[in-house]
Design goal:
Oligomer: heterodimer
Strand content of chain A: 5-15%
CATH architecture of the largest domain in chain A: Orthogonal Bundle
Distance between the termini of chain B: 69 Å
CATH class of the largest domain in chain A: Mainly Alpha
Number of strands of chain A: 8
Shape of chain A: globular
CATH superfamily of the largest domain in chain A: MetI-like
CATH class of one domain in chain B: Mainly Alpha
CATH superfamily of one domain in chain B: MetI-like
Strand order of the largest sheet of chain A: 1-2-3-8
Structural class of chain A: alpha+beta
Number of helices of chain A: 12
Number of domains of chain A: 3
CATH topology of the largest domain in chain A: MetI-like fold
CATH architecture of one domain in chain B: Orthogonal Bundle
Strand content of chain B: under 5%
Largest interface: A-B, 54 and 58 residues
């Protein structure tokens, strides 16, 4: 004991600078001082630089008149303020990402399942699609849609006409619905019908649990919704009319138009990201053990129900987390809109920071938006993930 | 006897051969293959027909446009302008030098070619697992090659004329940006990943903050910061080369993603390995360097290569701060009046797509090869 103690006494470990706790505290202090010092130095430089260039910092510029206009979903004009322009850009980012997410999910699901098809041709087409799209930059896909596909469409005079829809290099034009005064009743009727259908579903589920009898829930719910909404729509006197797009010599006025830049963005992002989602779906399905499929077949389920009731619910657990990050990627990739001039948050911000010189504020707005969105999507996905997670005993 | 005779009368003795059964269905050859893979059920038959129609509708026009009707060789744009139904490869041919070297001066292009050779000499032996001298190879790839390549390309010393980075461009610049991004993101990523798993709260907070900040925003905003804000952050008079700023932005962005990949590897190393290393009396750095990292990195090589692929694709975004890598060089040449026709953009973009695709597909195949190679232990 005494010998061991003596050995310990003379150990180099007892020197204060070899003590792990002290070392760790010192290292952390050094790091914090370095980080804070660097940030302070940079901030100080920035303040000096801004002062020299005569740029006032702060967000006061948001209230000033912008003096430029871009095609956005919100009604902007050259009298709009910088703040309103940025808001319009933000809305555009959200709209284009949301549409691209819908397209990419549907398309990715189809391609992902097709990659596992027993049909050689379908499988090969899906594999080619994924391997080609995954290995080229998203910017190239966007430029390809914009410069090679949409620009190659006929001009407005020989636009492709399908009924009231017309497709040309000026974009996609369709009739614009005009809601009459009593359309609100139809809308309320629709909501009521949804509620009724939902109630019916619950009742049918309870009945199936109690008696084992299965009702065709899907078609009956659809019937309820269509009938109730339709009756109210007709009863209130057809409150919906359409404004047709009118073709002039050089342009189309009226109607609803989908500008080519917008179409480019959501088609390109959708098609590109679908290739990633397809891989996620495929790996998710592969992760479900084959015994599950075999057991489901032994119970007498056919191909469709096996996929829908047995494989997919289990595959979703694997699919959801990477799917969430793919959705985030779509949102982040929508910033490539700058390349084709679609007025998203980054493109508008670029137009704002050039005349005002408020680059720090604009970059801060961008970062705040994208970081906020990341946080929201991660929180939502964690919640969803926790809900569908495997409950083990 | 008669008794037996009467009994044998009811017996039946077959006198001729039974009718031969039809041969079993063939299981080899084209027709059986088609039966099982294309027409196994009515649904599959319908799918096959739909697939065939889609493939026909895509492949035939594509082959016609890109091969049959294409203009392969023409001195000027006239032949392309007259031919609207086919690709204009003459345009790509005429601008190929620009696509590869950017505006790098003609007499100095041998330096870029040497760079390509030196790059291949470092990467190819590195990628083949059986080639020895990996340690020396690493030294070459991470230290010797960057210095030599930097001197060679930028010049200004050893009698090499100085070539401003402003005239760098094309495929060569794409390779420079992605190489620097890859070479820097790996060590940065390792440091960040170790920091994120550190016991020291201050280190952890700083690393988590940096990683999540970079991963939460698009690369474009990071490049904007590097391009526009960085000059504001430093005292007047201190100015960085624009390419250097872009490289810094790309490398920092990629290292955040790399850190997450490597963290996955660190988490996959069993706890017993850490404990064993500590029981041997190794300190933190010795344990990390000798025990943990070799195992962790080996596990995540496919993930690292995937990050490299993402980085390679992302280099196309540096055009934001007007650096002309391959894609933006190609795009710029569309407006060149000497070659501007209606088919030029599609031809140029297809060319760029093929180049990007070859690199990325090559890397992804390599990552799958490594995955198969490493997957020996738990193959089912």
């Amino acid at each position: 004991m005494a010998v061991a103690d003596a050995g310990r006494m003379s150990s180099s470990r007892d020197l204060w600078y070899n003590n792990p706790t002290i070392r760790s505290i010192v290292a952390q202090i050094v790091l914090v001082v370095l980080v804070v010092g660097t940030v302070a130095w940079l901030a100080n430089n920035t303040v000096t630089n801004l002062h020299e260039r005569g740029i006032a910092s702060g967000f006061a510029f948001l209230g000033q008149r912008a003096g430029f206009d871009m095609v956005t979903f919100l009604p902007t004009n050259s009298e709009s303020t910088y703040g309103f322009m940025l808001l319009a850009g933000l809305l555009d980012t959200i709209v284009v990402s949301a549409l691209a997410i819908v397209i990419a999910t549907i398309f990715g699901l189809i391609v992902g399942i097709a990659r596992l098809s027993s049909n050689w041709l379908i499988r090969t087409i899906a594999t080619l699609y994924v391997e080609i799209l995954r290995n080229i930059p998203p910017l190239l896909v966007i430029l390809f849609w914009y410069l090679a596909v949409i620009a190659a469409l006929p001009n407005i005079r020989d636009a492709i006409q399908i009924g009231p829809l017309s497709l040309s290099n000026r974009g996609f034009f369709m009739p614009k619905p005009i809601f009459g005064d009593n359309f609100i009743e139809t809308a309320i009727g629709f909501v009521v019908a949804l509620a009724v259908a939902w109630g019916f579903r619950r009742w049918a589920r309870a009945r199936q649990m109690a008696t084992g009898k299965i009702l065709p829930v899907g078609s009956i719910s659809l019937g309820i919704i269509v009938v109730i909404t339709g009756i109210i729509f007709v009863a209130t006197g057809d409150p919906l009319t359409f404004e047709m797009p009118v073709k002039n010599r050089f342009n189309v006025s009226g109607g609803w138009d989908l500008p080519p830049e917008f179409a480019t963005m959501f088609l390109a992002l959708g098609v590109y990201t679908a290739s990633f989602i397809a891989e996620i779906v495929r790996s998710g399905i592969m992760a479900v053990s084959h015994g599950q499929t075999e057991a489901a077949r032994a119970l007498g389920l056919r191909n469709g129900p096996v996929l829908r009731l047995v494989v997919m619910p289990q595959a979703l657990r694997v699919i959801i987390p990477p799917l969430a990050s793919e959705y985030l990627n779509i949102t982040k990739n929508s910033s490539l809109a700058l390349a084709v001039g679609f007025a998203d948050l980054v493109a508008v911000g670029n137009n704002v920071l050039n005349p005002t010189g408020q680059s720090i504020e604009v970059v801060a707005i961008w970062m705040a938006f994208y970081l906020g969105l990341s946080v929201v999507i991660s929180v939502a996905m964690n919640w969803f993930n926790a809900r569908i997670a495997l409950t083990e005993r | 006897m008669s008794d037996i005779q009467s009994q044998t009368d009811v017996f039946f003795v077959r006198r001729e051969m039974a009718q031969a059964e039809p041969p079993p269905m063939r299981v080899h050859g084209i027709i059986p293959w088609m039966r099982t893979n294309l027409f196994s059920s009515p649904t599959n038959t319908v799918l096959t027909i739909v697939g065939a129609v889609i493939a026909w509708m895509v492949i035939v026009p594509f082959v016609q446009w890109s091969l049959i009707n294409a203009v392969w060789d023409a001195p000027t744009r006239d032949a392309c302008a007259a031919n609207t139904g086919g690709a204009c490869w003459a345009f790509v041919k005429a601008n190929l030098g620009q696509f590869i070297y950017g505006r790098y001066p003609d007499p100095e292009r041998w330096r870029v070619n040497t760079f390509f050779v030196l790059l291949a000499a470092g990467i190819i032996p590195m990628a083949i697992p059986s080639v020895p001298f990996k340690r020396f190879n690493l030294l070459y790839v991470f230290i010797l090659f960057p210095i030599v390549a930097g001197v060679l390309l930028y010049g200004g010393v050893l009698g090499l004329p100085l070539v401003e980075t402003a005239v760098w461009g094309g495929l060569f610049l794409t390779l420079v940006v992605s190489y620097v991004g890859m070479a820097l993101s790996l060590p940065f990523g390792i440091i960040l990943a170790l920091g994120r798993r550190s016991n020291m709260p201050a280190v952890r907070v700083v690393c988590v903050f940096f990683i999540e900040l970079c991963r939460g925003v698009p690369l474009i905003t990071v490049l904007f910061m590097a391009g526009i804000l960085l000059p504001l952050f430093f005292p007047t008079g201190v100015s960085f080369d624009k390419l250097l700023r872009a490289l810094l932005g790309v490398a920092l962005f990629a290292s955040a993603y790399m850190a997450e990949v490597i963290r996955g590897g660190l988490q996959a190393v069993p706890k017993g390995q850490y404990e064993g290393a500590k029981a041997l009396g190794l300190g933190y750095w010795a344990m990390t360097r000798l025990i943990v990292l070799p195992q962790a990195i080996k596990i995540v090589i496919p993930g690292i290569v995937n990050t490299f692929i993402g980085l390679f694709k992302d280099t196309s975004l540096v055009y934001i701060i007007s650096i002309f890598e391959l894609l933006s060089t190609v795009r710029n040449s569309f407006t060149n009046p000497e070659w501007a026709t209606s088919t030029t953009p599609a031809s140029g973009l297809l060319f760029a797509a093929v180049v990007f695709w070859i690199f990325c597909f090559g890397m992804s195949q390599y990552s799958q090869f490594i995955e198969r190679r490493l997957n020996t232990g738990h193959r089912r």
